[in-house]
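Treating backbone geometry as a discrete language has practical consequences that deserve illustration. The sequence in question and its structure tokens are set out directly beneath this paragraph.
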Amino acid sequence: MLPPELPPLPALTRAECELVDRYLEVVDMVARINPARGEHTYRGLRAAQALVSRATELRDALALMHRRGETEVHAATLARALRVLDGERRTQRVTLPPETVG
């Protein structure tokens, strides 16, 4: 059985694509660092080290947009792109897990 077909990504500028990609990479690194969901310090350490370069790339994507005159963020369009790219699941890993009873 084939997996369900994903909706198409909304039309984005190259800079917006870069912003979305870099943002999700930062989210993934922060999720790996999350002490409420982690199991090993080494995994968190490696993610924290990688976070520095990912955050720099995110900053550079935003700076490029600003230099090009893209001064407004089209939040609804970018949110649709994030959803298509599994952003909801990925960002949930940054939060605290549900409290367990017992």
